[in-house]
Amino acid sequence: MPYPAKLTAEKILKVALELFERGGPDALAMRPLADALGVRPSSFYRYYPERAALLGALEAHATSKLHDAICRAAYGKAPDAAFFAAAYSYLDYARAHPHLFALLLGPRAPYTAEPGPGKDLWNEVLGIVGAITGNSDDTAATVAFWAFLHGFALLERSGQFGVSGPKGGFERGLRALLEGFGVN
Amino acid sequence: MPYPAKLTAEKILKVALELFERGGPDALAMRPLADALGVRPSSFYRYYPERAALLGALEAHATSKLHDAICRAAYGKAPDAAFFAAAYSYLDYARAHPHLFALLLGPRAPYTAEPGPGKDLWNEVLGIVGAITGNSDDTAATVAFWAFLHGFALLERSGQFGVSGPKGGFERGLRALLEGFGVN
DNA sequence: GTCTATACTCTGATAGAC
DNA sequence: GTCTATCAGAGTATAGAC
Question: Are A151 and B151 in contact (CB under 8 A)?
């Protein structure tokens, strides 16, 4: 009977993404996902061998979207402006998609495409930072920049800091890094 | 019959800590915890109303230990030396206790003592940064410093970067911040 | 080749007896 | 204060219907 098949990997991923974006990891349960697809829970094990594979696919999606956002934000800008634009688009993504963002630097799971979209994202940021420091392969500075962006997004999400505190800290850190990268 | 009680909140926390440090959140399940305590799973709901409360207590413990480590590392040092010492002890804690560390800036849960040990830790770092910038209540710079430390620890743990990359990035970022804080 | 039915083991949590 | 008994829900494996 099932010609064409009711399920495809893409359809599953699309619905999984919706559930995950609203409710986070807890909302992405196999049974509700099956209900939303009009199917039985065991059905999509043909497409994703386990739940973690689904999460891995979501992480790849998030990485790709973040990459797109940063590319758009930095495109055609002078080095300093691109640096700030990339930073703010990173933060914007974390705010707009908190659950997907939380997937990004999680403890290393399987189902993480090592040389996948993560590599593209890295190279994009590497280029932006390189334009500032004058070293087109400045791994150390890129790591430092990335660490600051990611850490700040988490601090903000944790809610441990007031409203004014984090906001000022972002600008302050960015300017300090920019300044410091130029000097060293 | 049970006089004195077999359980106390401290005993439970101690065993929970052991399980959690070895195996992370998944290893802290109620039944194994009960077995380790020679007790039935339902028994410690008298002491911790739910599993999340136990995790909250572990987070408070982690915060307190990290605070101690940073205090010890920075004690009696000149501003710049204290800055680096605090940074490295933060990183060391993240490496030595990866699971506990992951609890630290998680999404805000209940059972998080808002004005608890977190406040002490914050004030300690605030003092260290203030000694550098000359402003004893430099919230923005402290947030920036903290964001960098936490982000770097996560980048490293994620394993997405080679061995040499992150290492150099830590020093690079710290020096850039130190430099930039002085200038701005 | 695709999906369903069923069942198994695990989880956190609760009610009430002792 | 701890027990027994039980619950609903999770992820997953397998056999077989179509």
Answer: yes
Query: What is the pTM for the complete model shown?
Result: 0.95
**Strand C contact at CB of residue B19, distance < 7 A:** no
Tokens of A25: 């990891």
| Mean pLDDT, chain A cut into blocks of 10 residues (184 residues total) | 79 98 97 96 96 96 97 98 98 97 82 69 96 95 97 91 76 96 73
Is the Cβ–Cβ distance between A165 and B143 less than 8 Å? Answer: yes
pLDDT tens across B135-179, in order?
Answer: 999 999 999 999 999 999 999 999 887 766 677 999 999 999 999
A132–chain B nearest CA distance, Å:
13
Tell me the two tokens of residue A154: 């988490």
**For B58-183, CATH number?**
1.10.357.10
A99 to chain B: closest CA residue: B107
CATH number, domain A1-48: 1.10.10
Residue closest to C18, CA→C1'?
B1
Q: What ranges do the domains of chain A cover?
A: 1-48, 59-183
Nucleic acid strand C within 7 Å of A31 CB: no
- Please tell me which residue of chain B has the smallest CA distance to A153: B147
Q: Does domain A59-183 have CATH number 1.10.357.10?
A: yes
The angle formed by the CA atoms of residues A31, A35 and A39, to the nearest 5 degrees, is: 95
Distance of residue B70 Cα from the nearest chain A Cα, in angstroms = 18
